[in-house]
Amino acid sequence: MLDNFPDNLHPMAQFVAAIAALNNESKFAAAYARGVPKSSYWEYAYEDSMDLLAKLPTVAAIIYRNLYRDGSAVGVIDPKKDWAGNFCSMLGYDDPLFCELMRLYLVIHSDHEGGNVSAHTSHLVGSALSDPYLSFAAAMAGLAGPLHGLANQEVLVFLNKIVQEIGFNYTEDQLKDWVWKHLKSGQVVPGYGHAVLRKTDPRYECQRQFALKHLPKDDLFKLVSALY
Predict the structure, then answer these.
(1) Rounded to whole angstroms, how far apart are CA atoms 93 and 40?
(2) Contacts of 62 (CB under 8 A, 6+ apart)
(3) Whole-number Å distance between alpha carbons of 103 and 100
(4) Which among 56, 108, 212, 217 is least surrounded, fewest beta carbons within 10 Å?
(5) How far is Cα 62 from Cα 11, in angstroms, rounded to an integer?
(6) For residue 41, which of 124, 131, 156, 115 has the smallest C-alpha distance?
(7) pLDDT on residue 193
(8) Cβ-based neighbour number of residue 189 at 10 Å
(9) Would you say 203 and 152 are in contact if contact means Cβ atoms under 8 Å apart?
(10) Which one Pfam family would you cite for this protein (predicted)?
(11) pLDDT digit string (tens) for the chain, length 228 residues
(12) DSSP at 45
């Protein structure tokens, strides 16, 4: 299925479709169809959740390799590596610094409570007794929106647009003028402003400290710092 998706289908759309298709393996759906007692629902939902967690890295890695690599196999899990290390290998990277960044990125994005779009959506869909595969697929559809997870991609598009128009040799006034022109055109600056947080996102602070330590001279990071 994953190998047959068109190259122009967004990776999140592929991710949602693949997760929904895994519903065929749902222990919860099968148990519900058998008529198990309501008091036992949680056991099968738990099994589905654990199975899904185990499958997600491989699904994500296959999508990534198909779109941005050569479509080669993701390989086998190395029990000597941690979760992040294995995921980096599955994506096709072996740079220790990249793995350390991935480790940081996964940790700071792992704690999501019920207030955001994706977490709320999974709870809402699950409340209809849809199995965890369908509930999580719905959550990922929410995550794919530009006011949620897709904001990361929108930030990169925004930064690249600045670079294309004024380059890296900008002055503070040039940058201010560009941003004001952008805002007055009715567009927003992605990554700035949060529905819940009223201070700088601590996830950004963590990544900023990493960049200051390891990538202080990177042109794109310096652009982000200038905007910040």
Answers:
(1) 42
(2) 2, 3, 74
(3) 5
(4) 217
(5) 10
(6) 131
(7) 67
(8) 13
(9) no
(10) Citrate_synt
(11) 999 999 999 999 999 999 999 999 999 999 999 999 999 999 999 999 999 999 999 999 999 999 999 888 898 889 999 999 999 999 999 999 999 999 999 999 887 666 789 999 999 999 999 999 999 999 999 999 998 889 899 999 999 999 999 999 999 999 999 999 999 999 988 877 666 667 888 888 999 999 999 999 999 999 999 998
(12) H
**Cβ-based neighbour number of residue 132 at 10 Å:** 28
CA angle 205, 207, 210 (to 5 degrees): 110
The answer to whether 181 touches 166, Cβ cutoff 8 Å, is no
Coil, strand or helix: which one is 23? helix
* Both structure tokens of 87: 């995921």
Looking at residue 47, its amino acid is E
Task: Name 91's Cβ contacts closer than 8 Å, sequence gap at least 6.
Answer: 61, 64, 65, 69
- Single-letter amino acid, residue 48: D
Say if CB 135 and CB 22 are below 8 A apart: no
User: Which amino acid would we find at residue 15?
Assistant: F
Residue 118 burial (CB count, 10 A): 19
**Which CB contacts under 8 angstroms, 24+ apart, belong to 151-158?**
151/190, 151/191, 154/190, 154/191, 155/190, 155/191, 157/190, 158/189, 158/190, 158/191
Judge contact between 42 and 166, C-beta under 8 A. Answer: no
- C-alpha of 173 from chain center: 34
* Structural domains of the chain, ranges and CATH numbers in brackets: 2-144 (1.10.580.10), 150-227 (1.10.230.10)
In DSSP notation, 103-142 reads HHHHHHTS---TTSHHHHHHHHHHTTT--HHHHHHHHHHH
